[in-house]
Specification:
A middle domain of Talin 1; single chain; about 325 residues; 2 strands; mainly alpha
Amino acid sequence: MLLVGAALVAAVLVAVYHAEVVAHRIGEPFGSLTLAVAVTVIEVGLILSLMATGGPETATLARDTVFAAIMITCNGIVGLCLLVGTLHHRVVAFHAGGSSGALATVITLATLCLVLPAFTTTTTGPTFSESQLVFAAIVSIALYGVYVFVQTVWHRDYFLPVPVEGSDRTPVHLPPPSNRTTLISLVLLIGSLVAVVGLAKTASPAIESGVTAIGAPLSVVGVAIALLVLLPETLAAVRAARRNRLQTSFNLALGSALASIGLTIPGIAVASIWTEGPLLLGLGATETVLLALTAVVGTLTVSEGLATVLQSAVHLLIFAAFLFIAITP
């Protein structure tokens, strides 16, 4: 396990480095989008592989992992980036238009895919019927596609870093890498992300044993998987925040949350054709309250386009509450 842990850290660092090379070549917000989509695609593959081999007890794995990804990105990564940014620059700036639109899309998809199943009556339990699941998958893909189009085409300037006088912008002025270097970095990025997920899957039996040993619910396994898979994005977002590029950090965090829902739910919907047993998607009352609190606080955070250390403390407190409740429900 020590060797697996060391290899996992190395794979994360390699992924972050090559992601930044690719991002510097293609520019923002495409760089953030590339890393978010790449990590999420592999996360979906990990969830599906664990569900295929885990038996009935993995019926909530997709829900737990997606919800954990939302809480980690919207509270953990956002709060950590705000903390790093405000400690170095006191007040940090970002585009309220781009960030608020991304957050609204996250909350909408999270409500439709994770909250609504607990209230539908066509099927018993927190599940969707086949037609409802197909509808949720189509809506997820459609809304995520609109977000990507707005981010990269129509309103790309809303997702670019806010120019701040006196900030460290030296990396932006460096000459972009060549096409050959970018292609090599892209291949190595994909390889390192595959390694991150493979190592996370290798460590999952030990994680499950640890969860059982401390008496925590099995939903903690989904939290652990999300934490491991989101490590590359976390490091990249924190490095951007340190350079006073909070918009890039928000692109990574909120984009990852969107990709996690918009790609995972359709993938799970297709895979459910071959999997046995119910697919439990609806959140419980406790998780719904945390999601609602995240929506309200996140909206207040991004509405002004400016943030201080107070906002970082609030988001980190919500994230700490999520972790605590996950372990001791």
